[in-house]
Amino acid sequence: MRRRVVLPALTAAAVTTSFFVAVAPASAHGYISSPPSRQANCASGAVSGCGDIVWEPQSVEAPKGSFLCNGGGSRFAVLNDDSKNWPAASVGSTVTFHWVLTARHATSTWQYFIGTTKLAEFNDGGAQPGSTKSHTVSMGGFTGRRTVLARWNIADTQNAFYSCVDVNIGGGGGGGSTPPPTTAPPTTPPTTRPPTTPPTTQPPAGGTWAAGTAYAVGDVVTYSGATYRCRQAHTALAGWEPPNVPALWERL
């Protein structure tokens, strides 16, 4: 059974203590970050009105065998809403899908579908993956705008994790974006969403983003000519550059 850890709201006192909050591994899992899955587009702000999936892109868990983007579970039904303006990544006839895994569950198989047509299956035989996983998948002659459903089937439970990726096959490229960092960032959200609009006074500036620096909520940094505000207190690591971790940094 999954356990959830309730984090304190990000008040000034909570920010001070946020470095000492332990996150249980069972509360985090995985999702496709590149090309951006529907939950990744929600987490980055590319699609609005997504609800809790903004803070839990890694938590789309449901029984194995579903062809729905939310796995047919009771949560995250917004991922099944094809009327939303989901961005479609331009890809070629093969696509490399990159997963960020925030809990490394023993794995039976990874499966990729368009509709009910299975494009590929990768058998891990119960092995535990690393913090990231990549698969190169042929699009099987499909063209145009399609939705690829990916299933990460867990070896020792009846559940799988689901990720839907909207693609435009034949639009060029082989994946559409840069692979994710080799170390997965923390994605467990606070119980209260931090503000997404600038405060009336300028927040403290953090200067240029640098690995090894401790950042507090509201710190503002620059990186590659863009400005970002810290969403969650953390100590930066190489691979957690602001464009790579929208759960930690909001672009201004």
From TrEMBL:
<feature type="domain" description="Chitin-binding type-3">
    <location>
        <begin position="206"/>
        <end position="252"/>
    </location>
</feature>
<keyword id="KW-0378">Hydrolase</keyword>
<dbReference type="InterPro" id="IPR014756">
    <property type="entry name" value="Ig_E-set"/>
</dbReference>
<dbReference type="Pfam" id="PF03067">
    <property type="entry name" value="LPMO_10"/>
</dbReference>
<dbReference type="GO" id="GO:0005576">
    <property type="term" value="C:extracellular region"/>
</dbReference>
<protein>
    <submittedName>
        <fullName>Cellulose-binding protein</fullName>
    </submittedName>
</protein>
<dbReference type="InterPro" id="IPR004302">
    <property type="entry name" value="Cellulose/chitin-bd_N"/>
</dbReference>
<dbReference type="GO" id="GO:0030246">
    <property type="term" value="F:carbohydrate binding"/>
</dbReference>
<dbReference type="InterPro" id="IPR003610">
    <property type="entry name" value="CBM5/12"/>
</dbReference>
<feature type="region of interest" description="Disordered">
    <location>
        <begin position="172"/>
        <end position="210"/>
    </location>
</feature>
<dbReference type="GO" id="GO:0005975">
    <property type="term" value="P:carbohydrate metabolic process"/>
</dbReference>
<feature type="signal peptide">
    <location>
        <begin position="1"/>
        <end position="28"/>
    </location>
</feature>
<feature type="compositionally biased region" description="Pro residues">
    <location>
        <begin position="178"/>
        <end position="202"/>
    </location>
</feature>
<dbReference type="GO" id="GO:0004553">
    <property type="term" value="F:hydrolase activity, hydrolyzing O-glycosyl compounds"/>
</dbReference>
<dbReference type="InterPro" id="IPR036573">
    <property type="entry name" value="CBM_sf_5/12"/>
</dbReference>
<dbReference type="Pfam" id="PF02839">
    <property type="entry name" value="CBM_5_12"/>
</dbReference>
<dbReference type="InterPro" id="IPR051024">
    <property type="entry name" value="GlcNAc_Chitin_IntDeg"/>
</dbReference>
<keyword id="KW-0732">Signal</keyword>
